[in-house]
Amino acid sequence: MLGEKYYSVRMRASQHGSHEKGGKHISGGERLITFSGLNQAVNDLLHKGLSHSRGTPDFMQIQFEGINEPIRSIHPLPVETNEVDTAEKGQALARELLKKADIPENMIDKAFLDIAAYSEVRGAVLFDIRSGKRIDDRNEKGVRVSRIDWPEPDFHQWASEHGMAANSRIKEALAIAAKVCEHPNIMAELCWSDDPDYITGYVAGKKMGYQRITKMKDAGDESGCRIFFVDGFIDTDSCINFLEKQPVLIQREEKR
Predict the structure, then answer these.
(1) What pLDDT was estimated at residue 53?
(2) Is 256 within a domain?
(3) Residue 162, Cβ neighbours under 10 Å: how many?
(4) Which residues contact 211 (CB under 8 A, 6 or more apart)?
(5) Which of 140, 160, 168, 201 has the most CB atoms in a 10 Å sphere around its CB?
């Protein structure tokens, strides 16, 4: 399968004009697909952009390009679900999980203080655990984890084996987290959606895997969060290039 020609398909949608003209971000999506799947991938992303709970877009861009670089295959992270009944408990648990990922407590406090300032960033921010500063220099655009996918048959088989709902939201989140944690200098990821109807978030790391937290914000809240906690000695340009340009497909580990 990896010998076939692949294409990166990307969608972004906004309201009141494009993102560059100050439009409100509505939705984004990403697929890595062979030529035979392009039509379905474009239709799926079109539907996603037009049916998002953040609103109806008046600007949408869907583009695809051929992949010429070698595609890396990686395994999904182990998944654990943590049930909480309030956003406060969810965020408190996220702090504890970040400590287990060896993020200093004072840096966790600083990151949480800055979350409101990061809420309008369309992608992720790179947060330096040594200086307590954002180091990606991408402003509102942030870092977009791209050229990533999990082929449907393999994902559905994984979901069946793990008793997980086989929906596109979970697939996308797990794929992104796996690629992020593959980078040697990213210690952990903290994420929850800007979708007002989706309150589940997660903390992910190499040691702990993918830790789902069932409530990270209150329903109706359109603010999201995606922070990558990185070592201060990181080569920032190389890290961003990996996250945005390295083609990666997720493949479950075969049971023996």
Answers:
(1) 82
(2) no
(3) 12
(4) 80, 82, 97, 202, 203, 204
(5) 201
- Predicted pLDDT at 38: 94
Q: Indicate the range of 18-22, 121-125, 134-138, 154-158 predicted with least confidence.
A: 18-22
Residue type, 49: G
Q: Which of the two residues, 190 and 168, has the higher pLDDT score?
A: 190
pLDDT the model gives residue 255:
63
| Domain-embedded: residue 223 | yes
- Name every residue whose Cβ is closer than 8 Å to that of residue 92 and which is 6 or more positions away in sequence: none
120 and 28 share one domain = no
Cβ atoms within 10 Å, residue 14: 25
Regarding whether 55 and 116 lie in a shared domain, the answer is: no
Same domain, 15 and 82: no
Q: Count Cα neighbours of 192 within 13 Å in the Cβ-side half-sphere.
A: 26
Residues 132 and 208 in one domain: yes
Contact 201, 225 (CB under 8 A): yes
Q: What's residue 18's pLDDT?
A: 87
Burial class (CB in 10 A: 0-12, 13-18, 19+), 201: buried
| Residue range of the domain that includes 13 | 6-68
What is the C-alpha R_g of the chain?
18
